[in-house]
Protein backbone atom coordinates (compact mmCIF):
# COMPACT_ATOMS: atom_id res chain seq x y z
CA UNK A 1 0.00 0.00 0.00
CA UNK A 2 1.30 3.44 -0.92
CA UNK A 3 -0.75 5.29 1.68
CA UNK A 4 0.53 5.43 5.24
CA UNK A 5 1.66 7.69 8.10
CA UNK A 6 3.69 10.80 7.25
CA UNK A 7 7.50 10.37 7.27
CA UNK A 8 7.37 6.57 7.06
CA UNK A 9 9.20 4.71 4.29
CA UNK A 10 7.78 2.57 1.51
CA UNK A 11 9.67 0.35 -0.95
CA UNK A 12 8.66 0.59 -4.60
CA UNK A 13 9.49 -1.35 -7.71
CA UNK A 14 9.30 0.84 -10.81
CA UNK A 15 9.14 -0.13 -14.45
CA UNK A 16 11.15 2.25 -16.62
CA UNK A 17 10.98 1.93 -20.36
CA UNK A 18 14.32 0.78 -21.77
CA UNK A 19 15.46 -0.85 -18.52
CA UNK A 20 15.70 -4.68 -18.54
CA UNK A 21 14.55 -5.09 -14.92
CA UNK A 22 12.35 -3.37 -12.36
CA UNK A 23 14.12 -0.60 -10.42
CA UNK A 24 14.03 -0.45 -6.61
CA UNK A 25 13.29 2.83 -4.83
CA UNK A 26 12.65 3.71 -1.19
CA UNK A 27 10.59 6.87 -0.72
CA UNK A 28 9.34 8.76 2.32
CA UNK A 29 5.61 9.33 2.64
CA UNK A 30 4.42 12.93 2.89
CA UNK A 31 1.54 15.21 2.02
CA UNK A 32 1.11 15.56 -1.73
CA UNK A 33 0.72 19.26 -2.52
CA UNK A 34 -2.00 20.01 -5.07
CA UNK A 35 -1.33 23.37 -6.66
CA UNK A 36 -4.19 25.70 -7.47
CA UNK A 37 -2.10 28.25 -9.40
CA UNK A 38 -1.40 26.61 -12.75
CA UNK A 39 0.80 29.31 -14.26
CA UNK A 40 2.32 32.71 -13.54
CA UNK A 41 4.52 34.63 -15.98
CA UNK A 42 4.89 37.91 -17.90
CA UNK A 43 2.81 38.33 -21.05
CA UNK A 44 4.46 41.65 -21.92
CA UNK A 45 6.93 43.96 -20.20
CA UNK A 46 4.17 45.48 -18.06
CA UNK A 47 1.50 42.76 -18.07
CA UNK A 48 1.60 39.74 -15.75
CA UNK A 49 -0.55 36.62 -15.85
CA UNK A 50 -1.74 34.27 -13.10
CA UNK A 51 -4.08 31.32 -13.70
CA UNK A 52 -6.04 29.94 -10.74
CA UNK A 53 -7.79 26.59 -11.25
CA UNK A 54 -9.75 26.62 -7.95
CA UNK A 55 -9.85 28.37 -4.56
CA UNK A 56 -8.25 25.95 -2.10
CA UNK A 57 -6.72 26.55 1.34
CA UNK A 58 -3.29 27.17 -0.20
CA UNK A 59 -4.46 29.38 -3.08
CA UNK A 60 -3.94 32.78 -1.48
CA UNK A 61 -0.40 31.87 -0.41
CA UNK A 62 0.40 30.58 -3.92
CA UNK A 63 -1.16 33.66 -5.53
CA UNK A 64 0.67 36.09 -3.24
CA UNK A 65 4.00 34.39 -3.92
CA UNK A 66 3.57 34.59 -7.70
CA UNK A 67 2.26 38.17 -7.59
CA UNK A 68 5.32 39.25 -5.60
CA UNK A 69 7.63 37.62 -8.16
CA UNK A 70 5.87 39.37 -11.03
CA UNK A 71 6.01 42.74 -9.27
CA UNK A 72 9.75 42.33 -8.81
CA UNK A 73 9.91 41.84 -12.58
CA UNK A 74 8.28 45.23 -13.07
CA UNK A 75 4.66 44.55 -13.99
CA UNK A 76 2.04 47.27 -13.53
CA UNK A 77 -0.94 45.31 -14.89
CA UNK A 78 -2.19 41.81 -14.14
CA UNK A 79 -4.38 39.19 -15.80
CA UNK A 80 -6.17 36.87 -13.36
CA UNK A 81 -7.40 33.87 -15.36
CA UNK A 82 -10.45 32.26 -13.73
CA UNK A 83 -11.73 30.35 -16.75
CA UNK A 84 -13.01 26.87 -15.89
CA UNK A 85 -12.54 27.66 -12.19
CA UNK A 86 -15.49 26.09 -10.30
CA UNK A 87 -14.88 28.03 -7.08
CA UNK A 88 -13.94 26.84 -3.61
CA UNK A 89 -13.30 28.62 -0.33
CA UNK A 90 -15.05 32.00 -0.13
CA UNK A 91 -12.55 33.35 2.41
CA UNK A 92 -9.67 32.69 0.02
CA UNK A 93 -11.46 34.58 -2.76
CA UNK A 94 -11.95 37.50 -0.37
CA UNK A 95 -8.23 37.51 0.50
CA UNK A 96 -7.32 37.73 -3.17
CA UNK A 97 -9.81 40.54 -3.83
CA UNK A 98 -8.34 42.37 -0.83
CA UNK A 99 -5.01 42.63 -2.68
CA UNK A 100 -6.68 44.88 -5.28
CA UNK A 101 -9.12 47.01 -3.26
CA UNK A 102 -8.45 49.92 -0.94
CA UNK A 103 -9.35 49.63 2.75
CA UNK A 104 -13.06 49.56 3.64
CA UNK A 105 -14.25 48.84 0.09
CA UNK A 106 -17.14 46.37 0.11
CA UNK A 107 -16.18 42.95 -1.28
CA UNK A 108 -19.58 41.22 -0.94
CA UNK A 109 -22.52 40.70 1.35
CA UNK A 110 -24.79 37.77 2.16
CA UNK A 111 -28.50 37.85 2.93
CA UNK A 112 -30.69 35.09 4.37
CA UNK A 113 -34.45 34.56 4.03
CA UNK A 114 -35.09 36.69 7.14
CA UNK A 115 -33.26 39.59 5.51
CA UNK A 116 -30.24 39.45 7.84
CA UNK A 117 -27.19 40.91 6.08
CA UNK A 118 -23.50 40.25 6.69
CA UNK A 119 -20.95 42.42 4.88
CA UNK A 120 -17.31 41.75 4.06
CA UNK A 121 -14.87 44.61 3.48
CA UNK A 122 -11.30 45.02 2.33
CA UNK A 123 -9.29 45.26 5.54
CA UNK A 124 -5.64 45.88 4.75
CA UNK A 125 -3.33 47.50 2.27
CA UNK A 126 -3.23 45.33 -0.82
CA UNK A 127 -0.15 44.78 -2.95
CA UNK A 128 -1.88 45.67 -6.21
CA UNK A 129 -4.24 48.50 -5.32
CA UNK A 130 -2.70 50.85 -7.90
CA UNK A 131 -2.32 48.32 -10.72
CA UNK A 132 -4.69 47.61 -13.59
CA UNK A 133 -6.46 44.23 -13.39
CA UNK A 134 -8.06 42.08 -16.09
CA UNK A 135 -10.14 39.08 -15.01
CA UNK A 136 -10.85 36.29 -17.51
CA UNK A 137 -14.11 34.37 -17.02
CA UNK A 138 -16.24 31.95 -19.00
CA UNK A 139 -19.40 29.88 -18.63
CA UNK A 140 -17.54 27.49 -16.28
CA UNK A 141 -16.33 30.18 -13.86
CA UNK A 142 -18.47 29.71 -10.76
CA UNK A 143 -19.00 30.64 -7.12
CA UNK A 144 -15.78 32.07 -5.64
CA UNK A 145 -14.60 32.97 -9.16
CA UNK A 146 -17.73 35.07 -9.57
CA UNK A 147 -17.15 36.70 -6.19
CA UNK A 148 -13.72 37.89 -7.39
CA UNK A 149 -15.01 39.10 -10.77
CA UNK A 150 -18.09 40.77 -9.30
CA UNK A 151 -16.23 42.53 -6.49
CA UNK A 152 -13.65 44.01 -8.85
CA UNK A 153 -16.24 44.96 -11.48
CA UNK A 154 -18.57 46.63 -8.99
CA UNK A 155 -15.72 48.61 -7.43
CA UNK A 156 -14.59 49.82 -10.89
CA UNK A 157 -11.26 48.13 -10.27
CA UNK A 158 -11.01 45.42 -12.89
CA UNK A 159 -11.96 44.89 -16.52
CA UNK A 160 -13.83 41.60 -16.88
CA UNK A 161 -13.10 39.82 -20.17
CA UNK A 162 -14.78 36.73 -21.60
CA UNK A 163 -18.32 35.34 -21.40
CA UNK A 164 -21.10 35.33 -18.79
CA UNK A 165 -20.10 33.23 -15.82
CA UNK A 166 -21.92 30.18 -14.45
CA UNK A 167 -24.23 31.79 -11.92
CA UNK A 168 -23.70 30.08 -8.56
CA UNK A 169 -24.03 32.22 -5.45
CA UNK A 170 -25.49 30.20 -2.61
CA UNK A 171 -24.12 30.03 0.94
CA UNK A 172 -24.35 26.47 2.22
CA UNK A 173 -23.79 25.04 5.69
CA UNK A 174 -22.76 21.40 6.07
CA UNK A 175 -24.64 19.43 8.72
CA UNK A 176 -23.26 16.04 9.76
CA UNK A 177 -25.73 13.23 10.32
CA UNK A 178 -25.54 10.36 12.79
CA UNK A 179 -24.58 7.77 10.17
CA UNK A 180 -21.51 9.74 9.07
CA UNK A 181 -23.12 11.29 6.02
CA UNK A 182 -23.81 15.01 5.70
CA UNK A 183 -26.35 17.41 4.25
CA UNK A 184 -25.49 20.79 2.78
CA UNK A 185 -28.24 23.23 3.65
CA UNK A 186 -28.59 26.53 1.77
CA UNK A 187 -28.79 29.33 4.33
CA UNK A 188 -28.29 32.54 2.34
CA UNK A 189 -27.14 34.09 -0.94
CA UNK A 190 -24.08 36.05 -2.02
CA UNK A 191 -24.45 39.54 -3.48
CA UNK A 192 -21.89 41.73 -5.21
CA UNK A 193 -21.15 45.21 -3.81
CA UNK A 194 -23.81 46.90 -5.99
CA UNK A 195 -26.43 44.41 -4.79
CA UNK A 196 -26.46 41.92 -7.65
CA UNK A 197 -27.36 38.31 -6.96
CA UNK A 198 -24.94 35.90 -8.64
CA UNK A 199 -27.28 32.90 -8.39
CA UNK A 200 -29.23 31.71 -11.44
CA UNK A 201 -32.88 30.91 -10.91
CA UNK A 202 -34.08 27.42 -9.95
CA UNK A 203 -37.62 28.46 -10.87
CA UNK A 204 -37.94 25.91 -13.69
CA UNK A 205 -36.40 23.03 -11.75
CA UNK A 206 -33.09 21.19 -11.66
CA UNK A 207 -33.24 19.96 -15.26
CA UNK A 208 -33.44 23.48 -16.68
CA UNK A 209 -30.78 24.71 -14.26
CA UNK A 210 -28.22 22.12 -15.32
CA UNK A 211 -29.11 22.43 -19.02
CA UNK A 212 -28.22 26.12 -18.92
CA UNK A 213 -25.01 25.67 -20.96
CA UNK A 214 -26.93 24.06 -23.83
CA UNK A 215 -29.58 26.79 -23.63
CA UNK A 216 -26.86 29.42 -23.96
CA UNK A 217 -25.37 27.55 -26.90
CA UNK A 218 -28.74 27.29 -28.68
CA UNK A 219 -29.62 30.93 -28.03
CA UNK A 220 -26.33 32.15 -29.48
CA UNK A 221 -25.24 33.83 -26.23
CA UNK A 222 -21.82 32.16 -26.31
CA UNK A 223 -20.93 33.78 -29.63
CA UNK A 224 -22.98 37.01 -29.62
CA UNK A 225 -23.21 39.35 -26.60
CA UNK A 226 -26.49 40.79 -27.94
CA UNK A 227 -28.09 37.42 -27.18
CA UNK A 228 -27.41 37.72 -23.43
CA UNK A 229 -30.79 38.22 -21.76
CA UNK A 230 -30.87 41.02 -19.19
CA UNK A 231 -33.74 42.59 -17.27
CA UNK A 232 -34.03 46.32 -16.62
CA UNK A 233 -35.39 45.46 -13.17
CA UNK A 234 -31.99 43.91 -12.38
CA UNK A 235 -29.93 46.89 -13.54
CA UNK A 236 -27.33 48.25 -11.12
CA UNK A 237 -24.77 51.06 -11.31
CA UNK A 238 -21.16 51.09 -10.10
CA UNK A 239 -19.68 54.13 -8.26
CA UNK A 240 -18.28 55.45 -11.57
CA UNK A 241 -21.58 55.03 -13.40
CA UNK A 242 -21.05 51.75 -15.25
CA UNK A 243 -24.26 49.76 -15.73
CA UNK A 244 -24.11 46.12 -14.62
CA UNK A 245 -26.82 43.47 -14.45
CA UNK A 246 -27.91 40.84 -11.95
CA UNK A 247 -29.98 37.76 -12.56
CA UNK A 248 -27.30 35.10 -12.58
CA UNK A 249 -23.62 35.16 -13.36
CA UNK A 250 -21.26 38.03 -14.13
CA UNK A 251 -21.57 39.63 -17.56
CA UNK A 252 -18.11 40.69 -18.81
CA UNK A 253 -17.18 44.24 -19.76
CA UNK A 254 -15.46 42.93 -22.89
CA UNK A 255 -17.07 39.95 -24.62
CA UNK A 256 -14.97 37.25 -26.32
CA UNK A 257 -16.95 34.56 -28.21
CA UNK A 258 -16.55 30.84 -27.67
CA UNK A 259 -14.39 29.20 -30.32
CA UNK A 260 -16.69 26.64 -31.94
CA UNK A 261 -14.37 25.87 -34.84
CA UNK A 262 -13.90 22.22 -35.76
CA UNK A 263 -10.17 22.31 -35.05
CA UNK A 264 -10.66 23.68 -31.54
CA UNK A 265 -13.33 21.09 -30.71
CA UNK A 266 -11.17 18.29 -32.12
CA UNK A 267 -8.00 19.31 -30.31
CA UNK A 268 -9.83 19.81 -27.02
CA UNK A 269 -11.29 16.30 -27.35
CA UNK A 270 -7.91 14.74 -28.19
CA UNK A 271 -6.26 16.54 -25.28
CA UNK A 272 -8.91 15.50 -22.75
CA UNK A 273 -8.81 11.88 -23.91
CA UNK A 274 -5.04 11.81 -23.39
CA UNK A 275 -4.08 11.08 -27.00
CA UNK A 276 -1.76 14.08 -27.28
CA UNK A 277 -0.02 13.59 -23.92
CA UNK A 278 0.50 9.86 -24.54
CA UNK A 279 1.91 10.51 -28.01
CA UNK A 280 4.29 13.18 -26.69
CA UNK A 281 5.45 10.93 -23.86
CA UNK A 282 6.25 8.10 -26.25
CA UNK A 283 8.11 10.45 -28.61
CA UNK A 284 10.03 11.98 -25.72
CA UNK A 285 11.11 8.57 -24.46
CA UNK A 286 12.74 7.81 -27.81
CA UNK A 287 15.36 10.52 -27.22
CA UNK A 288 14.78 12.55 -24.06
CA UNK A 289 18.38 13.80 -24.02
CA UNK A 290 17.80 15.61 -27.32
CA UNK A 291 16.25 18.44 -25.28
CA UNK A 292 18.94 18.65 -22.58
CA UNK A 293 20.65 21.68 -24.12
CA UNK A 294 17.58 23.87 -24.57
CA UNK A 295 16.33 26.12 -21.77
CA UNK A 296 12.70 26.62 -20.87
CA UNK A 297 12.64 30.19 -22.25
CA UNK A 298 14.36 29.17 -25.48
CA UNK A 299 11.95 26.29 -25.97
CA UNK A 300 8.85 28.42 -25.42
CA UNK A 301 10.01 31.31 -27.59
CA UNK A 302 11.82 29.62 -30.45
CA UNK A 303 11.30 25.87 -30.66
CA UNK A 304 9.24 24.72 -33.66
CA UNK A 305 8.15 21.36 -35.04
CA UNK A 306 8.01 20.66 -38.74
CA UNK A 307 5.01 19.11 -40.50
CA UNK A 308 6.46 15.62 -40.10
CA UNK A 309 5.53 15.70 -36.41
CA UNK A 310 1.88 16.25 -37.34
CA UNK A 311 2.02 13.29 -39.72
CA UNK A 312 3.54 11.14 -36.98
CA UNK A 313 0.75 12.11 -34.59
CA UNK A 314 -1.81 11.45 -37.30
CA UNK A 315 -0.42 7.94 -37.83
CA UNK A 316 -0.32 7.34 -34.06
CA UNK A 317 -3.94 8.43 -33.63
CA UNK A 318 -5.19 6.36 -36.55
CA UNK A 319 -3.43 3.30 -35.16
CA UNK A 320 -4.95 3.81 -31.70
CA UNK A 321 -8.49 4.61 -32.88
CA UNK A 322 -8.64 2.60 -36.11
CA UNK A 323 -9.89 5.80 -37.73
CA UNK A 324 -8.65 7.76 -40.73
CA UNK A 325 -7.98 11.19 -39.24
CA UNK A 326 -6.23 13.98 -41.08
CA UNK A 327 -5.02 17.34 -39.75
CA UNK A 328 -3.94 18.99 -43.00
CA UNK A 329 -6.38 21.86 -42.48
CA UNK A 330 -4.93 22.84 -39.10
CA UNK A 331 -1.32 21.75 -38.97
CA UNK A 332 -0.25 24.81 -36.98
CA UNK A 333 -2.83 24.26 -34.24
CA UNK A 334 -1.81 20.61 -33.86
CA UNK A 335 1.87 21.56 -33.67
CA UNK A 336 1.13 24.12 -30.97
CA UNK A 337 -0.78 21.60 -28.84
CA UNK A 338 2.03 19.08 -29.20
CA UNK A 339 4.60 21.74 -28.34
CA UNK A 340 2.61 22.87 -25.28
CA UNK A 341 2.28 19.28 -24.06
CA UNK A 342 5.98 18.64 -24.61
CA UNK A 343 6.81 21.85 -22.70
CA UNK A 344 4.67 20.62 -19.82
CA UNK A 345 6.42 17.24 -19.72
CA UNK A 346 9.89 18.78 -19.97
CA UNK A 347 9.53 21.81 -17.70
CA UNK A 348 6.16 21.75 -15.89
CA UNK A 349 5.28 24.80 -13.76
CA UNK A 350 2.93 26.47 -16.23
CA UNK A 351 4.93 25.80 -19.39
CA UNK A 352 1.82 24.39 -21.09
CA UNK A 353 -0.10 27.63 -20.54
CA UNK A 354 2.81 29.77 -21.72
CA UNK A 355 2.79 27.99 -25.07
CA UNK A 356 -0.95 27.55 -25.56
CA UNK A 357 -1.71 31.15 -24.55
CA UNK A 358 0.33 32.43 -27.49
CA UNK A 359 -2.78 32.00 -29.67
CA UNK A 360 -5.46 32.41 -27.00
CA UNK A 361 -8.06 34.90 -28.23
CA UNK A 362 -8.88 36.21 -24.74
CA UNK A 363 -5.21 36.83 -24.03
CA UNK A 364 -4.89 38.58 -27.39
CA UNK A 365 -7.86 40.79 -26.50
CA UNK A 366 -6.31 41.75 -23.15
CA UNK A 367 -3.01 42.67 -24.79
CA UNK A 368 -4.91 44.90 -27.24
CA UNK A 369 -6.73 46.57 -24.33
CA UNK A 370 -3.47 47.01 -22.42
CA UNK A 371 -1.71 48.60 -25.39
CA UNK A 372 -4.70 50.84 -26.11
CA UNK A 373 -4.55 52.31 -22.60
CA UNK A 374 -0.87 53.32 -22.87
Mean pLDDT: 93
In spatial order, strands of the major sheet run 3-4-5-8-9-14
Count of individual helical segments? 12
Topology as a string of helices (H) and strands (E): EEEEHEHEEEHEEEHHEEEHHHHHHH
Give the strand content: 15-25%
**pLDDT under 50 segments (min length 5)?**
none
Task: State the secondary-structure class.
Answer: alpha/beta
Percentage of residues in helical conformation: 25-40%
| CATH homology group of the largest domain | 2-enoyl-CoA Hydratase, Chain A, domain 1
Globular, elongated, flat, extended or rod-shaped: what is the shape? Answer: globular
What name does CATH use for the topology of the largest domain?
Answer: 2-enoyl-CoA Hydratase, Chain A, domain 1
Major sheet: size, sense and barrel closure?
Answer: 6 strands, mixed
Report the C-alpha radius of gyration, rounded: 23 Å
First-residue to last-residue Cα separation:
58 Å
Beta-strand segment tally = 14
Instruction: Using the coordinates above, name the CATH class of the largest domain.
Output: Alpha Beta
How many domains in all?
Answer: 2
The second-level CATH architecture of the largest domain is Alpha-Beta Complex
GO biological process, one term: signal transduction
Domain Tail specific protease: 20-202
Keywords: Hydrolase, Protease, Serine protease
InterPro entries: ClpP/crotonase-like_dom_sf (IPR029045), Peptidase_S41A (IPR004447), Tail-specific_protease (IPR005151)
Amino acid sequence: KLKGPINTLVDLKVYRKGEPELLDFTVKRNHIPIKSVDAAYKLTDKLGYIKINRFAESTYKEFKKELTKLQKQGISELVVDLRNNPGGFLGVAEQIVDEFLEDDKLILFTKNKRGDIEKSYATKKGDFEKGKVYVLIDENSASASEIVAGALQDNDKGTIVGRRSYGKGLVQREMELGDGSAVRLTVSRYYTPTGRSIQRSYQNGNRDYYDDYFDRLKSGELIDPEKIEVADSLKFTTPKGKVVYGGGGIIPDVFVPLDLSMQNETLTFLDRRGFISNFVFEELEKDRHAYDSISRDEFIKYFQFDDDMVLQFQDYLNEKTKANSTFVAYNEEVKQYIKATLADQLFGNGAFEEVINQSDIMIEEVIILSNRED
